[in-house]
Amino acid sequence: MLTNDKLPLIRDKALWMRRTAFTMVHRAQLGHPGGDFSAMDILATLYFGVLNYDPKRPDWADRDRFVMSKGHATGALYSALCAAGYFPEDWLPTYMQPKSLLNGHPNRNYLPGIETNTGPLGHGFPVATGIAIAGQITGAPYRTYVLTGDGEQQEGSNWEAAMVCGHRKLANLTLIIDRNRLQQGAGTEETSGLDPLDDKYRAFGFEVHEVNGHDHAALLATLSAPPGDKPRCVIANTTKGKGVSFMENVASWHHGVPNDAQFEQAMKELV
Fold first, then answer.
1. pTM for this one?
2. Average pLDDT over residues 12-41
3. Is the Cα torsion angle 124, 125, 127, 131 positive or negative in sign?
4. Rounded Cα–Cα distance for residues 147 and 66 (Å)
């Protein structure tokens, strides 16, 4: 049974992951730190409070599956995988370097712990749906979790996947939407409005939960709850760039990179 005893570890890991990801982006002068930081608390909660996995056996058949559909947020994913023990810390400085295993988008041929290659938005949720169908057919005990961006919800492939999930009642699947309301260049509602996102997923046959995506206790309670009889959609309301004052709710930090002064300021704030 999961308890709030996990919360101190989740908080510590989330802070370490933020500092690590921002250091990686600063060193490489490449990355997507705004989306990394909006997703960081979700990933910390999953890897240190929810997911059943063994980094020494990344292909263990009964492991829970996690798909990072918003594949540009590799700073968040790689820091989580490193913190979880999938690869050593001395790989982190190679982020985005030529021939690095820590590529700009996740590649399962390079790193253990990555279920599928992602990058083009709208691909991860359909793949996760297929993984969940396989588990349903075989009666496997694993659960499938997939994290998408909210701008990514504008891709039609997600709604095809949602229709299949609802039809098959994939209770072993949890879709998490990083709802920071910003995408590259503008707000989601300015670009192509998504609201009411909760009612849309209910209409597709999902059990829908809305949580503060930076509240570890709320995330832990929601994501670790036993499955019901429907697929689950968790709308995690987040802040782009959460944790660094000059990044929060600023669209340009979708793919902005810090100069030395900004890096030093961020490190002072991330304590």
1. 0.97
2. 98
3. positive
4. 8
Instruction: Count, in order, helices (H) and strands (E) of the chain.
Output: 9, 7
Q: Which two tokens stand for residue 102?
A: 């820590």
First and final C-alpha spacing in the chain: 30
Distance in angstroms (rounded) separating the CA atoms of residues 192 and 62:
39
Q: What is the identity of the amino acid at 172?
A: N
Phi, psi of 68 (to 5 degrees): -90, 90
Round to whole Å and give the CA distance between 132 and 136. Answer: 6
Tally of domains in the chain: 1
Full residue range of the structural domain in which residue 165 is found: 4-269
Tens-place pLDDT, residues 122-132 = 999 999 999 99
Q: What are phi and psi of 158, to 5 degrees?
A: -65, -40
Q: What is the CATH number of the domain that holds 239?
A: 3.40.50.970
